[in-house]
Amino acid sequence: MVKIAIDAMGGDYAPEAVIEGVEQARDLFEDTVFLLYGKRDVINQHLKNRDRIQVINADEVITMEDEPVRAVRRKKNSSIVMAATAVKDGEADAFFSAGNSGAVLAAGLFIVGRIKGIDRPGLVTALPVVRNANQSNFVMMDIGANADSKPVNLQQYAVLGTYYAERMMQAKSPRVALLNNGTEDDKGNKVHKAAFELLQQTADINFIGNVESRDLLNGVADVVVTDGFTGNAVLKSIEGTARSMLGLVKDAVYNTGVSGKLGGLLLKNGFNQIRSQMDYSQYGGAVLLGLKAPVVKTHGSSKAPTVVNTIRQIRQMVATDIVPGVAAYYANQQANQQASVDKSVEND
Amino acid sequence: MVKIAIDAMGGDYAPEAVIEGVEQARDLFEDTVFLLYGKRDVINQHLKNRDRIQVINADEVITMEDEPVRAVRRKKNSSIVMAATAVKDGEADAFFSAGNSGAVLAAGLFIVGRIKGIDRPGLVTALPVVRNANQSNFVMMDIGANADSKPVNLQQYAVLGTYYAERMMQAKSPRVALLNNGTEDDKGNKVHKAAFELLQQTADINFIGNVESRDLLNGVADVVVTDGFTGNAVLKSIEGTARSMLGLVKDAVYNTGVSGKLGGLLLKNGFNQIRSQMDYSQYGGAVLLGLKAPVVKTHGSSKAPTVVNTIRQIRQMVATDIVPGVAAYYANQQANQQASVDKSVEND
After folding, report:
1. Which pathway does it serve (chains A, B) (predicted)?
2. How far apart are CA A327 and CA A333, in angstroms?
């Protein structure tokens, strides 16, 4: 049985959309148990069938306006803190929320805790690759957990992203690239130049060099490594531009008279396909990778289908042992370092 | 008479496309003289009419493969170096090239030189605003001149961008925003938090706070201030996503049988409008602002229409005295500082 702790109170459509998604997922995935944290009375009003769904009362709610770190420290009885604590205590395998992003990250970091060897967990998300028969998506990391990153953080994102792409997207020896301001090896600011050097020396990743943001959607890499500030800006640029373009297409249909409307009708299926191809909530939410268990944050605007996709994603993360895989990688790195220290002592 | 020094040898379609564009511009703008730098024999082969076009032989060419700073130092007889030198010597009012970007920037920095008070010139470009009846474009700066930026550089981009937007886009009291990882005042990494504080204290700009890249194309600001690394990534994300979306629309037309093709035909005008709306070469090239004269870099893929647009842009920059305006601003700032130092000495 996979046990997932869920913040029922997070997101613009909570708790209804969360509960609806959880009930749909429960009906789809027979080996999964759901721990639903939130105001018991409200949850019970909406819950149709309690089969494999356990409701745990959480008196407090962390709102979007709360200062994240302080809220996680003070609101001990909030749905986010209680769900994260269940993971820490081994009562659940993973935790997810559509609520206050900062609070979800803080709860992950301070309550669930980091894998030994990871300095800064980062947020990973899958994004679509378009017009490429050989690849349908890629992952990018960090998309915004850390506003200031050191080269070693980017190196760790590369390892974490490799595990994620291998196990979640069945990418064999995933191509890892550094998002940079040019494709040549010597490009970048200080942090990215140093990160490039580190990535070249990193064991067990398939580093292919620098890529530019212009080429991401074409499938130039499976794992795109970036600092959280740039990654956040790039992700939001892609989102905003795609939305603007879809809006322009809509205008072309509606503002060009009868012929435009007829054209739009004839192309309706094609346009719907574009919309669904660009909708990356199909891959679930953003995962804070580098923690001792999967912690997933979905868009505040998530509705039931995104909740179902996120639960599917979490089940796969648990089934493919991503966290134990990363933990073993870093334990091994440390053992190798120790061995090489021992050896150099012997040789003295 | 406006005199423009032009690198005839830069860009994928040089010298033909450059010469063709210059001849078209010459026919359009009667008060403009063109100094065309490059291999005289080659230029003369393509030049139809020498009216107001002076050809100056440049034996060397800086290629796309040349290391920029070294090439500018060594290739004294290259079209880029000679054109920039003409500006320095007062023989021309401005300089532009579609060649090696780094070399154009280096020639601007080392030959044309900085305005007193500006630490790091930055690259500015105009980008489209879509689906907004009140605004058709905005400017973003720095889009990649400096990979590492300090808060004071971002502050100077805000001033430079304000002058550019006021005089090139007739924006009254242009809204200046900082591109950040959230809209709240306390968002950002260290550099952006410090830049926010500086922008709040900057005289004579209309700072409206932080914006996210997701909202740029909607027209949330007239001047978007960003460090060159992030700005470069965002610009290329917008470009890449727009291109991918247009590709998907094309696929929708061609891969959905007869009805799709008919739909495409009916929407042809609408699609062409989208394409031309997203094509920001209509605004000319990217300007390295902060130099003692306009230095403009256009895409390597520029053809004659972009050359014409860039010449239009340069003429307007010269006519609206952007460079003298910025120079006066910083001279005034320094005079104020001196006055306040004098006053504090008096009070002692």
Report:
1. Lipid metabolism; phospholipid metabolism
2. 10
A339 touches chain B (CB under 8 A): no
Asked if the Cβ–Cβ distance from B256 to A269 is below 8 Å, we say yes
Count of Cβ atoms closer than 10 Å to residue A338 Cβ? 10
Mean pLDDT of B22-37: 98
Q: Which of A153, A210, A266, A274 to mutate to test the interface with B (most CBs of B within 10 A)?
A: A266
* pLDDT (0 to 100) of residue A170: 86
pLDDT in tens, A46-80: 999 999 999 999 999 999 999 999 999 999 999 99
Residues 6+ apart with CB under 8 A from A18: A6, A7, A8, A9, A10, A11, A36, A98, A302, A307
Question: B192 contacts in A (CB within 8 Å)?
Answer: 147, 229
Rounded CA separation A241/A234 (Å): 10
Sign, Cα dihedral of B69, B71, B74, B78: negative
ipTM over 0.90: yes
Q: Does A327 touch chain B (CB under 8 A)?
A: no
pLDDT at A348: 64
Q: Residues 102-131, chain B: which have Cβ within 8 Å of A?
A: 130-131
The dihedrals phi and psi of B5, each to the nearest 5 degrees, come to -90, 130
Q: Is B136 on the interface with A (CB under 8 A)?
A: no
Q: Does B87 touch chain A (CB under 8 A)?
A: no
Instruction: Name chain A contacts of B215, Cβ cutoff 8 Å.
Output: 240
CA gap A220, B244 in Å, rounded = 13
Average pLDDT over residues A286-315: 96
CB contact under 8 A, A181 and B233: yes
Rounded CA gap, A217 and A156, in Å? 23
pLDDT above 80 (res B347): no
Spatial contact of B61 and B37, defined as CB atoms under 8 Å apart: no
Could you list the beta-strand ranges (E) of chain A: 2-7, 32-38, 53-57, 94-97, 122-128, 137-141, 175-179, 206-211, 223-225, 286-289, 295-297
Q: Check whether A259 has a pLDDT greater than 90.
A: no
Q: Which positions in chain A touch B271 (Cβ < 8 Å)?
A: 252
Q: Please, which pLDDT band fits residue A140 given cuts at 50, 70 and 90? A: very high
The structure tokens 């700009």 sit at B205
